Amino acid sequence: MDQSHSVKLKTIAEQLHFQIVRESADYEKIEINNANLNRPGLLLAGFFDYFDDDRIQLMGLIETAYLQQFTPEERLVRFENLMAKKIPALIICHDVETMPECLEMAEKYDITLFKTNTDTSELMANLIGFLREQLAPRITRHGVLVEIYGEGVLLLGESGVGKSEAAIELVKRGHRLIADDAVEIKRIDSRTLQGTAPELIRYYIELRGIGVIDLRRIFGSGAVKLSEKIDLVINIETWQEGMTYDRLGANEQYTNILGVDVPFLTIPIKPGRNLAVILEVAAMNNRQKKMGYNSAKEFTDRINHHFEQQMAGGMID
User: Fold this and answer.
1) Pairing relation of β-strands 89-92 and 112-115?
2) Helical segments of 136-196, H only
3) Which residues, 6+ apart, have CB-to-CB distance to 47 below 8 Å?
4) Marked catalytic residue, from 22, 78, 138, 163
5) Per-residue DSSP letter, 38
6) Selected catalytic residue, list 39, 55, 94, 181
7) Residue 261 annotated to the active site
8) Which residue among the candidates 142, 172, 173, 290 is catalytic per the annotation?
9) Strand 37-38 relative to strand 31-32, pairing
10) Residue 282: predicted pLDDT
11) Is the pLDDT of residue 3 over 70?
């Protein structure tokens, strides 16, 4: 698994609609691989300890007001100290007019300048969110990802066990397919995984005996979804006689994907079991657990309470 990812500076500018004030000579080649941003207040004041030169810099009203108290010559020095660090780009927020000294030093050190009318805090939130999604650690798993009642369910299992057939049945019942065969999984944050399909096979699904079909064209755009968080992982396996399977569900199981623990179930299948209905119930049960209700725990508590009453009654008699 390759944990190193990057996104082009040009892509960032296009997605967040930045106005280009000045392009560097290598503008289209610049790659950003740090999701953290920096407001250069301390840098403009001359403090460069712990400075990361691979971060995009954001300048807002506070930095502008601070610089306006200096003479043009002093501003030139302060901008030179910043631009000489070869930062990837400087974004000027609130549609503030670009200072001539800033533009001069950007020309000297070939730095890209952007402008935006967005508030600095809002831009930081939007840009950090975008960068974290683009630079998120990721992995590709063999499986099927479906959305069932708003829950993202990742189906795993050996090839031919019936994952794609179950996905088709779920789509017919009103649920949506995200990915078949290969699922690209990203860790968006410390608790969230997001799954999508590789662009090449997006919306396609393979059914043995029929071949590859375009689910979006057959069932409509409402039958598919571009991406979905992963709330539950289900391993589907052929029923094995003599194997002990969990019948109560009181013991919570998890699987770890990219450092995130996700609820995990193993569902054995054999002729006569309606897999699509079982998956629907599993998704609804997982949703109820997140809302604070655990039917297995309640059932266990009722059984324990019943036996306690029986034992107490026996002791009284």
Assistant:
1) parallel
2) 163-172
3) none
4) 163
5) E
6) 181
7) no
8) 142
9) unpaired
10) 93
11) no
Interhelix angle 275-290/163-172, rounded to 10 degrees, is 80
From residue 104, alpha-carbon distances to 24, 66, 76, 140 in Å are 13, 19, 8, 46
Which strands sit side by side in the sheet containing 260-269, from one edge to the other? 227-229, 192-196, 176-189, 138-148, 151-156, 232-238, 260-269, 254-257
Nearest by Cα to 14 from 102, 116, 95: 116
Q: Which two tokens stand for residue 178?
A: 């995200």
* Cα 294 to Cα 315: distance, rounded to the nearest angstrom: 32
Q: Model's pTM, two decimal places?
A: 0.75
- Distance of alpha carbon 289 from alpha carbon 140, whole angstroms: 27
The amino acid at residue 110 is D
How far is the C-alpha of 163 from the C-alpha of 166, rounded, in Å?
5
Q: Sign of torsion, CA 62 66 68 72?
A: negative
Q: Return d(Cα 209, Cα 285) in angstroms, integer.
A: 33
181 is catalytic: yes
DSSP H/E element including 115: strand 112-115
Q: Are 197 and 205 in contact (CB under 8 A)?
A: no
The three-class DSSP label of residue 109 is: helix
Q: What is the pLDDT of residues 110-168, one digit of tens each?
A: 999 999 999 999 999 999 999 988 898 999 999 999 999 999 999 999 988 889 999 99
Q: By C-alpha distance, which of 260, 261, 264 is closest to 252?
A: 264
How many Å apart are CA 197 and CA 166, to the nearest integer?
A: 17
- Which residues have C-beta within 8 Å of that of residue 64, sequence separation ≥ 6? 96, 99
pLDDT band with cut points at 50, 70 and 90 for residue 315: low
Residue burial 59-82, b: 16+ Cβ < 10 Å; e: rest: bbeebbeebeeeeeeebbebbebb
The CB density around residue 225, as the number of other CB atoms within 10 Å, is 19
Residue type, 309: Q
Which residue of the set 2, 49, 247, 270 is catalytic?
Answer: 247
Instruction: Give yes or no for a contact between 241 and 131, defined as CB atoms under 8 angstroms apart.
Output: no
